[in-house]
Amino acid sequence: MIELHQLTKRYGDTLAVDGLSFAVPRGVVTGFLGPNGAGKSTTMRMILDLDRPTAGRVTLDGRRYGQLAEPLSYIGALLEAKAVHPGRTARDHLLWMAQSNRIPARRVDEVLELVGLSAVARKRARGFSLGMSQRLGIASALLGDPEILMFDEPVNGLDPEGIVWIRTLMKGLAAEGRTVFVSSHLMSEMALTADHLVVIGRGRLLADLPMADFIKQNSRSSVRVRTPQPELLLDALHRAGLHADPGPDGSLEVPDGDLAFLGELAADHRITLHELSPQQASLEEAFMQMTSDSVEYQAGSPRPVGPAGPGGAAVDGSPAAPSAPPAPAWGSDWQARGKQKEN
Ligand SMILES: Nc1ncnc2c1ncn2[C@@H]1O[C@H](COP(=O)(O)OP(=O)(O)OP(=O)(O)O)[C@@H](O)[C@H]1O
Questions:
Q1: SS3 letters for 91-130?
Q2: Which residue lies with its CA nearest to atom 6 of ligand 1?
Q3: CATH for 239
Q4: Same structural domain for residues 60 and 45?
Q5: Which residue's CA is minimally distant from atom 1 of ligand 1?
Q6: Annotated region Disordered: where (predicted)?
Q7: Full domain range(s) for residue 328
Q8: pTM, two decimal places
Q9: Fewest beta carbons within 10 Å, which of 53, 162, 249, 298?
Q10: Using CA atoms, how far apart are residues 171 and 176, in angstroms rounded to an integer?
Q11: Do residues 44 and 159 both lie within one domain?
């Protein structure tokens, strides 16, 4: 288990991590989420003792990192895939790490096999693609067969087969009772991988809860209705004390609508329906909703128009909803630009 106690890191005027306290339990995959600059990497570096906290502390199953005699056998981490000497072969890189932690050389070949790099074991790291470097980083993390594993954006650069592989690997490691802590900006990927979520924004804890609870608490459900008689439906909804927002392609979205009730309402008023479908916000939407006040970097591209459109009025004639917060800086544009570090 990893435990953070009021962990704080200040770089000059920047409070990168602000009194973070949470525990990463063993036996589950814990996803670590936050917008760009939220403090995820800084937190992970402090867990590994690579950065000294300004205040607070981290313990690994009750012990400090500095108290571990052979840390690789206790905690394995992938923080920066390209942090490998370019002139070193994959095997030599791992051998060097193994020797410094009294790990037998045969384990090097085992982990190379495990991550699918045996064929390129004697190739120099400078020729490695990002995906190959990620695999080498994962091999380094697994080298000491540690109880605690930490991965910073591990699927970055992996192809679809590689993504499924790392997902299966992380779930398998957790199923063995290990502590698995993983950061990612791929919300859809986290939904498939993580059992538990820790969300931070501007260095502060925003959420620490099971994935299912996070989605339930942070997503809004609605019912999408498509009808060639929208005026009749809006009138019926209004009389039932409900309202609708404009949805995509002329559909209507009824917030918190009950599917059966809406179907019966339409039938009672002899309104033809072309669609009546439940809508549940995705993890990405839930996440963006939660962190909207904590986004440090904003994308310059226009955001998609929300249900009522920017400043638009709801279709039932009710006053315009307050405009939605600006979209956080991820999505394809963010991914294409890659992680923008200032450190
Ligand atoms: N070495 C450093 N010197 C100065 N400021 C730093 C340093 N490292 C991080 N920061 C700042 O601390 C804040 C947190 O950065 P950090 O890289 O930990 O965030 P992150 O959540 O990992 O972001 P990303 O998703 O972009 O990697 C940012 O404002 C960043 O600019």
A1: HHHHHHHHHHCCCCHHHHHHHHHHCCCHHHCCCEHHHCCH
A2: 343
A3: 3.30.70
A4: yes
A5: 343
A6: 295-343
A7: 220-280+298-316+323-334
A8: 0.74
A9: 249
A10: 9
A11: yes
Residues 111, 174, single domain; the answer is yes
308 lies in some domain: yes
pLDDT per position as a tens digit, 172-205: 999 999 999 999 877 777 888 999 999 999 999 9
Is 163 part of any domain? yes
ipTM of the complex: 0.96
pLDDT digits (tens, 9 = 90+) for 93-118: 899 888 888 889 899 999 999 988 88
Nearest CA to ligand 1 atom 31: 342
Judgement on whether residues 196 and 51 belong to the same structural domain of the protein: yes
Tell me if 332 CB under 6 Å of ligand 1: no
Q: Is 343's pLDDT higher than 50?
A: no
- 68 Cβ partners below 8 Å, 6+ apart? 60, 74, 75
CA of 343 to the centre of ligand 1 (A): 6
Ligand 1 center–CA 177 separation, angstroms: 31
> Are 56 and 191 part of one and the same domain?
yes
Mean pLDDT of the chain: 82
**Cross-sheet strand order for the sheet of 2-11:** 14-24, 2-11, 55-60
Whether 239 is in a domain gets the answer: yes
Query: Is residue 171 domain-resident?
Result: yes
Q: Of 216, 236, 261, which residue constitutes the final position of a domain?
A: 216
Ligand 1 neighbour 42 (Cβ under 6 A): yes
Please indicate whether residue 46, judged by its CB atom, sits closer than 6 Å to ligand 1. no
- Residue 313: both structure tokens together: 């009025």
Within this chain, do residues 37 and 140 fall inside the same structural domain, yes or no? Answer: yes
Nearest C-alpha to atom 3 of ligand 1 is from which residue? 343
Tell me if 52 CB under 6 Å of ligand 1.
Answer: no
Give, using CA atoms, the residue closest to atom 18 of ligand 1.
39
Supply 338's token pair. 């890659």
